[in-house]
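Fold this complex.
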Amino acid sequence: MATKKPSPGELGDLSLPNKHRDPICLTGFRKTKAVDWLKSLVLIRAAEEKIGEEFGKAVIKCPCHLVIGQEAPAVGLADHIRKGDRVFGAHRSHAHYLALGGDLHQLMAEVLGKETGCSKGMGGSMHLYQPQAGFHGSVPIVGSTIPIAVGAALSIQMDGTKNVAVSFLGDGATEEGVFHESLNFAANFRLPVVFIVENNLFSSHLHIDLRQPYNSTCRFAEANGIPWQRVDGNDVAAVSSACLAAIRQARSGKGPQFIEMVTYRWRGHVGHREDVDVGVKRKDDLNLWKKRDPIARLAKGMEKRKWLKTGELHRWKTEAEAAVHKAWDQASRDPYPKPEALLGRVYFQGENR
Amino acid sequence: MSTGKKTSYGQALRDGIAYLLKTYPEVFTIGQGLWSPWYVGNSMTDLDKEFGKERVIDTPVAELACTGVAVGAAISGKRPVIIHPRVDFALLAVDQIVNQAAKWCHMLGGQVSVPVTIRAIINRGGEQGAQHSQSLHSWFAHIPGLRMVMPATARDARDLLIASVLCDDPVMFIDDRWLYEQEEILPSPKEINLSKEGPEIRRSGKDITLVSCGYPLQQCLQAAQFMAERGIEAEVIDLRVLNPLKREPIVDSVRKTGRLLAVDGDWATCGMAAEVITSAVEGVEPGIWEKAPARITLPDAPAPTSKPLEQAYYFQVEDIVRKAAELVDGNK
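Structure:
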């Protein structure tokens, strides 16, 4: 459920770490849906914990931007994605890939640079691709997939289907010029694209208060005449409801939509450590934000409705960890790309086609 | 079918786009000024009226987003042509061209093609100065994954444009307003495989090899004609596809002539002329060289506006003749 709209420029108490710790309100949702969310959240966290652990041991070398603490936006969006929809991510995209149903083993293989990876070992953590799951690419140049998602939406509009494109971006990307160009373009041509800003209050090491005069990015949607919603990004039910509404509008020709999801990452900008990018009050805030944990809050919401039996969450965590370890072990044994891949993949079209 | 009527380079570009729009529903064009006769010369005249404004899209002033939109459409089943009426403005879109379009195939394991054509126009001269005159084909040719095409004739303007759009890879296609009045009798449009295309010998000769691309190629042909009347037979090679560069025709020609003059309408340092000379030096045995290879390029300075400086900035046919004659006449 979207919160009230006090102002398109102010997050209000959504930015406060000591607020919004209550169990998630599940009114209007089925138990099976909540179970799916919880399992998905737990799997993503288990995968990220494992990747962080191996990164810490330098077994994984490629830069990994872990999503721990901010898993809910990806999970709440994934419910509403249909065949033919096109979702794009940025540098912190393991969650989006997995939430959409991206293959776990292929993710592990990719961060290890293996031929069996989702990008054949050529991309690493920052370049994920799994079109069969609706995930059409992620890149670490901040803001670069925003116009690409708009272009996917233009293609959809030309084809006349009811599909949508989704552009995931962070609050830092809203400072890039291409973000503003893309919102203007999408609104001007009424394209079926949903912009989702995961506002985790930080861009790398720098807090949004040190980067922008206002802490909510909804003002940019307002300025372009794009309908916007703002939700607690650690509340998967609120995320899902907002996505349902926005995607429904986009599918029915109402033009671009915008959702800001307020959340927080527990690890540093890159890598496994919590204390890499210590900003102003970061340590105190982090301890408070951990009490806004999207997994614990969903579990408590389910317990209130007696949808979660004793030990069930623990069992699912164990199962998720087992799945992650199995995928990891397999990926560890997989082959690296052959030397021919270096030059053989530069061009798609060879001389014989 | 040839009717004996001549077609200009500008008209040939328009014919190429019209052929694509007519034949392939997945092709569309997008860019600033496409509905205006002023931005793109006669290369897009009335295409919006013929094929609709949904497929000939005039855009907001946003080179980066518009290029990104074209890249996004290209990975979603379309074959867009994003048009930048001046190369200089395409620099605002370099992230999408260099970081995205050129990289996605490789970094996603060869699983995705990006069939986008970035058509940029050199529109220099007339005292337009530093930011309305650049060519930058050498710069773009430096990027693996980005095919760099530069047509010097009306036929290539049309058929290489068609080949670029039908190619599954991103193509930087740079045409030149100074060539728009260049005319020739053209056969019907022909679909060719861009990855098989490369340098072509435009004139055969035994005394010296001239290698060029774009507008200076026509200057080289004029220089060769002038020299032929004085008994010097120059071989003239048109690069056409600058990246990936097929080097064999250059090497083979220099093996025959023993002399090389690279002529390029771009800067010298790390430029296309340097690449041509290096290719020949690496491929041609030392004993074959009659003379050290040489190049004619723009001076390493931004384009000036003042008339006498501008005249000094752009080389003329006479400059090519003089340099070529030095190479042919001089002692070893």
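DSSP finds 13 helices and 14 strands in chain B.
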